[in-house]
Design a protein that fits this description.
Number of strands: 12
Strand order of the largest sheet: 1-2-3-7-6-5-4
Bound molecules: biotinyl-5-AMP
Number of helices: 5
Distance between the termini: 40 Å
Strand content: 25-35%
Order of helices and strands: EHEEHEEEEHHHEEEEE
Radius of gyration: 17 Å
Shape: globular
Largest sheet: 7 strands, mixed
Helix content: 25-40%
């Protein structure tokens, strides 16, 4: 992929900014900001985005919209962390964790035939007090700051690879997520709009959904706005 990087100092949300560039910006447009004033998670949740982290969105135009696209972002982040010696795992559906702390989140949105993939990765930024128990950064893990530009360069390289691979063979990306998650066999609680499910994770199926064993019954949790807690 040929990336075309737009570097901003401050923006409300790189996803919103990228969305407004569509349809005039080509696939491969990347919006990066030093700070976001209204960084977004899913479902109106907020994403803390102070200076020092990597906050970016890429514009993609896949031949068809597939919710499994979010795995491309998570896998690219996990590979990037590995380049810096950090062992991370993919937390279905859209997070990357180091041990029991979240280091990155991916938010994919759709506009027409475009997909906007937003990636937030804590690099050298401070973790806000209220997230200290559940979040970490590359700097916290490594005990030193890292070159943000290098992180971006690596991440875009891995995104190119995983996006291409995904278009050729989406089940391979799902397979890789299965390999890089610690969820299989774990007891989890799944929080959804309608309520809550508790069970043991059997697998992540080829279509990207999570298979849970709930009292001996197999229940399929489709990717959507679900949150997962390991019990
Ligand atoms: C996500 O949402 O994890 C997707 C986050 C995507 C952020 C990127 S940054 C660039 C682009 N532009 C945007 O505006 N967004 C994208 P979700 O699964 O809903 O998780 C949100 C939850 O993560 C929050 O409710 C907090 O609990 C937690 N959180 C917020 N900021 C965090 C941070 N910096 N590091 C770790 N956890 C955080």
């Amino acid at each position: 992929m040929k990336w075309n990087i737009l570097h901003l100092d401050e923006v409300d949300s790189t996803n919103e900014y990228a969305k407004n560039l569509i349809p005039n910006a080509p696939e491969g447009t990347v919006v990066v900001a030093n700070r976001q004033t209204s960084g977004k998670g899913r479902k109106g949740r907020s994403w803390a985005s102070p200076e020092g982290g990597l906050w970016m969105s890429v514009i993609l135009k896949p031949p068809r919209i597939d919710p499994r696209l979010v795995f491309v972002g998570a896998l690219a982040v996990a590979d990037t962390l590995r380049d810096f010696g950090i062992d991370a795992w993919v937390k279905w559906p859209n997070d990357v964790w180091v041990g029991n702390r979240k280091i990155s989140g991916v938010l994919t949105e759709v506009k027409g035939s475009f997909a906007i993939m937003g990636i937030g990765l804590n690099v050298n930024n401070e973790i806000p007090e209220e997230l200290k128990d559940t979040a970490t950064s590359m700097r916290d893990v490594l005990g030193r700051s890292v070159d943000l530009e290098k992180v971006l360069e690596r991440l875009l390289g891995h995104l190119s690879y995983w996006y291409r691979t995904f278009l050729e063979n989406p089940s391979f990306a799902v397979e890789e997520v299965r390999r890089r998650t610690i969820l299989i066999g774990e007891r989890v609680r799944v929080l959804q709009d309608g309520g809550e499910l508790s069970g043991r994770v059997i697998d992540i199926s080829e279509d990207g959904s999570l298979l849970l064993d709930i009292g001996g019954k197999v229940v399929k949790v489709v990717y959507g706005d679900v949150s997962l807690r390991i019990v």
